[in-house]
Structure formats: structure tokens, C-alpha cells
Amino acid sequence: MISQSQAISWNDLADSVLNGGTVDDATAHAILDCPNEELLGLLQAAFRVRHQYFGNQVQLYYLKNAKSGLCPEDCGYCSQSKVSDAPIEKYAWLNEEKLLAGARQAKENQAKTYCIVASGRGPTNREVEHVAKAAKRIKEELGMHLCCCLGLLKPEQAQILADAGVDRINHNLNTSRELYDKICTTHTYQDRIDTLKVAQAAGMELCSGIIVGMGETHDDLIRVTNELRELNVKSIPVNFLTSIEGTPLENVSELDPQQCLKALCLFRFTNPSTELRIAGGREIHLRTLQPFGLYPANSMFVSDYLTTKGQTPSEDYQIIKDLGFEVVTQGFESEKPTELV
């Protein structure tokens, strides 16, 4: 285990992690407190870990908002919640053909994973059956890796999704247990943990991450990354708060590009072999330093998010190409990467 008894050598940290070492809380603080003049060294060390497990490959994700708004929860960051006045489009469930059309668009955009997302506390059994029917067709017709984010799940619902071919459930922790009730009061942090465990018990992989920039301390970030490691999640999306007008957090803006990059490095060192994704808010907060995000991370969303616009796929492809990286659409390392267009 690395500890901060003296100045950290980032390359020594990479050596330790690559040899199976873990990162204690003091070293995690040192990563987040890294002086900006040392940031390139920190990124280079994080890239060594990323490269060991993922090479120069990048996996793309594509989101489909299958049900927008109309949510009874009070999550302070979300434009779809009951406490939001954000002027977003609101609609009930998309039909099966529209969900398939989204999957085809994902494939055209070179995404490996198609994500079906729905607002709300959790789905009804009828809604789960609707997603399951679409999932079966997506698997049969397109063979895509499939992730669903549907809110709180019951064991029997999770099993239906798994049996339909859903590979992975996303349910973000978003912030630490200690901060959670300041962000949301209509469900608990433990509710989220329970849903992840239900999905895992049904045989699906876990995707769970964080929203950085909601007033958390460094201790909060460290608690979340440690919890995700203990849960054995396969994919960690690191979002950066988009302060949407009309939400309770509309005036919160705490981040700069350097802070965002240090957070990504923290998640890479503490979860070395886990897929790490630069997610919502990257365009706003990383800005011109977006390409550096792919030194610790090996995944990104392509195109738009749930209710906010992203940059164009062609801009994402250009970043990847300029870095000398390659998009992978089937699996890491063992598959031939696709050519960027």
C-alpha cells in the first residue's frame, strides 16, 4: 500500500498499482491535491495504468432517453425531477421501434454500448417487460452490448432484464453516503446500493459512478471510489455537474479542468482495471483539456446526453484520432479496432 509519508512519486505510485498495490486515503488526497505544475506527471502515471489494461483503445457509449421528465424524485442536479423547472421535453415511454432506432444510431456512431435510460423512481413490471422485449430484438438484430438505467429495481425485475439479454445495469451512487441526503431526500443512498446488489445477483454487470462538483469534499470523492471498488463495478462514469437552470443546483459551479483531471486520475489509480468513462459535463468543465481526460479514462459518451447537448460525434472522433487512439466496438484488445471516419 502506498502512503503519503513523503512527497509522492507518481511513477512509483503507478508501479505499485500495477503490481497489485492499493491506494490509501492519504495518497488519494495527494492525488486530488496534486499541484498543477505536477499534473502532466500525474496524467502520465495514470496513463501507464490505463494502458496496461486497455491499451490505446476507447469505448464509446450512446444514451437513449426512453422516458423523459415526469419524475417524482427530488434529485437536486436533475432537470427531470419534480423540483426542476428546467424547460425540457417530457414524454412517456418510447415505443419498441424507437428504442431499436436508437440502437441503430448507436451502432452507426461506433458505440460499443447502447444505454436505455428512463426517468422515475423505478419501473413498473409492465415497463420492465417493454424494455425486455426491445432488448431481445436489439440483441438479435444488432448484437450490441446493452446497458439499462431504470431506477430502483426489484429482484424479479432485474431477472427479467438479465434473461432478455441486458448485459449491465447503470445506477450511479452520484455522491457519498454522508452527502447524499443534501442532494436527494425521496430515496436513500442505501436504496441505490440495494439496486446494484439486486442487479449483480441477477447476473448483470454493474455500471455506477459519480457527479463531481455538487459541493462534495475530497473525503466524499474518496469514499465513493472506495465503495465502487468494493462493489466490483465494471464501469465507472465520472460526470461533472452541469448546472442546469431551473434545478436546485443551478448556481453551483465549483470545477476547473485541472480538478476534473485529478478526479479522473483518482478513479483510475483506485480502480485500475475498471472501465472509466468521461461522461456528462466534460465539454463544459474539461473544455480544451478534454483530450487529456482519455489518459486516465478509456471510455466516453458520444453525441448527446439525457436532456443536454453534447458535442458532435465527429468532434469526439477527432479527439480520439488526434491522440493516436482507436475506437473498439466489440471488446478490448482482442478485437481489431474500427477505423475512424
Automatic annotation (TrEMBL):
Enzyme type, top EC level: transferase
GO MF terms, alphabetically ordered: 2 iron, 2 sulfur cluster binding; 4 iron, 4 sulfur cluster binding; biotin synthase activity; iron ion binding
Reported function: Catalyzes the conversion of dethiobiotin (DTB) to biotin by the insertion of a sulfur atom into dethiobiotin via a radical-based mechanism.
Protein name: Biotin synthase
Quaternary structure note: Homodimer.
CDD domains in UniProt: Radical_SAM
SMART domains: BATS (SM00876), Elp3 (SM00729)
Binding residues annotated for [4Fe-4S] cluster, in chain numbering: C71, C75, C78
Gene that produces this protein: bioB
Classification of source organism: Bacteria, Pseudomonadati, Planctomycetota, Planctomycetia, Planctomycetales
Record organism: Rubinisphaera italica
Top-rank taxon: Bacteria
Reactions the enzyme catalyzes: (4R,5S)-dethiobiotin + (sulfur carrier)-SH + 2 reduced [2Fe-2S]-[ferredoxin] + 2 S-adenosyl-L-methionine = (sulfur carrier)-H + biotin + 2 5'-deoxyadenosine + 2 L-methionine + 2 oxidized [2Fe-2S]-[ferredoxin]
Keywords: 2Fe-2S, 4Fe-4S, Biotin biosynthesis, Iron, Iron-sulfur, Metal-binding, S-adenosyl-L-methionine, Transferase
Chain positions recorded as [2Fe-2S] cluster binding sites: C115, C147, C207, R277
Cofactors: [4Fe-4S] cluster; [2Fe-2S] cluster
Domain Radical SAM core: 53-282
InterPro entries per the UniProt record, alphabetical: Aldolase_TIM, BATS_dom, Biotin_synth/BioAB, Biotin_synthase, Elp3/MiaA/NifB-like_rSAM, rSAM, rSAM_sf
